[in-house]
Amino acid sequence: MSFSSDEVNFLVYRYLQESGFTHSAYTFGIESHISQSNINGALVPPAALLSILQKGLQYAEAEISIAEDGTEQRLTESLSLIDAVMPDVVASRQNQQNQQKQVEKTEIADTNGEEAATVVSTQSESMEVDTAIEIPSSKATVLRGHESEVFICAWNPTTDLLASGSGDSTARIWDMSDNTTSPNQLVLRHCIQKGGTEVPSNKDVTSLDWNCDGSLLATGSYDGYARIWTTDGRLASTLGQHKGPIFALKWNKRGNYILSAGVDKTTIIWDAASGLCTQQFSYHSAPALDVDWQTNNSFASCSTDQCIHVCKLGMDKPIKSFQGHTNEVNAIKWDPQGILLASCSDDMTLKIWSMKQDTCVHDLQAHSKEIYTIKWSPTGPGTQNPNMNLILASASFDSTVRLWDVDKGACIHTLTKHTEPVYSVAFSPDGKFLASGSFDKCVHIWSTQSGQLVHSYKGTGGIFEVCWNSRGDKVGASASDGSVFVLDLRKL
């Protein structure tokens, strides 16, 4: 067996991408010249690095479990990855296995059958699925077409068109309106000019967002360009000003401006009609990771520099800056009224900010690992559900989702059924349900009132994104194996 440094670098790069370390992947990709390698990323399956490491670990365990007389003996304790690369530890474990074999030869005891039965019993219990809440496959439409991981998906706000964005350098629009098992798909190829001709950019589509009336779709890409598309798949305009990948992209409510955040440390407000840069903001000292509009002309941005800035069109400096996080800030979201700003970070905290004060209103510490994303419920004053309390949801790499009462600064529910990092959460339009997607391949749907698991569906790849359609009767999800699927919740 032989492998090149290019192959190793590519697998590490892909692992960083799949683990959510987007900006780290970008930096590593530049330094290791990934783009100059001849590896076709579309052919490399998800979790390839983990798969090959796991096989190597199994081989090391197999070597240890073979006794000197050639017989095989079950390991009493699994080998860790670090142990497997330390010759002294491997040799020590091999000696322990041989000694154990000698002891067993001198003992007369027949407990193997009983022990095996116990192991099988425990395993089956842990694998048990509550069929009462499992969504049947007849209610799931799997959409195939993408050739790489699908990082994002979003429903059109007025029709049942589902947009998805992938590492295969395409976005796709799926027409889910007629409930067919093989819906029409429009392929939006992200191309760049090279030698006077258009060629595929071969860069990930990192972000997408529909405008308020659903007539236009904006996408952001690792190739540094934002693009605006019509619902029939036509490229309306290309927005080029960032010097490097775009990490986030949002339309304002009026639909006249698009906001983007890039690895070049800047945020840009674009005029949607002309496709020109209206204003570029250069206040961060490191890549900008997320942006969110507060009003039609003011917004917040966050960065790996641990800072949050609130900026306004026409102003040459931030109108407010918030500091308090001790690690990079992954996501920010204004509440439905644009009064409170929530932020989450790799420092494992969730913070609530107000324009009325410099320090955070609440510093919510409960998660035990990085918090990847947050969402406000569409409830409370200023929403279509004014009689329901406002809730904030947080999704973490600790495999949990938490629901927070922001007025009290208290955790209402901890949702613990996932077994891997949770990458996405989304509230139903009426605020009564929350969908969550995890790398355990499961989409769970919870009651926001009771915190109980209501429905569950297991797909074929780790879930990057979940989203509800405008009527609240379908949930879309995108996954690491290139699949997109739609769950029909009617008559469940």
UniProtKB/TrEMBL annotation:
Pfam family, one: LisH
UniProt keyword annotations, A-Z: Nucleus, Repeat, Ubl conjugation pathway, WD repeat
Gene3D superfamilies found in the cross-reference section: 1.20.960.30, YVTN repeat-like/Quinoprotein amine dehydrogenase
Matching InterPro entries: Ebi-like, LisH, WD40/YVTN_repeat-like_dom_sf, WD40_PAC1, WD40_repeat_CS, WD40_repeat_dom_sf, WD40_rpt
Species in which this protein is naturally found: Cryptolaemus montrouzieri
PANTHER family: F-BOX-LIKE_WD REPEAT-CONTAINING PROTEIN EBI, WD40 REPEAT PROTEIN
This protein's record includes keyword Repeat: yes
GO CC entries: nucleus
WD repeat ranges, renumbered to this chain: 143-184, 205-229, 239-280, 322-363, 364-414, 415-456
Name recorded for this polypeptide: F-box-like/WD repeat-containing protein TBL1XR1
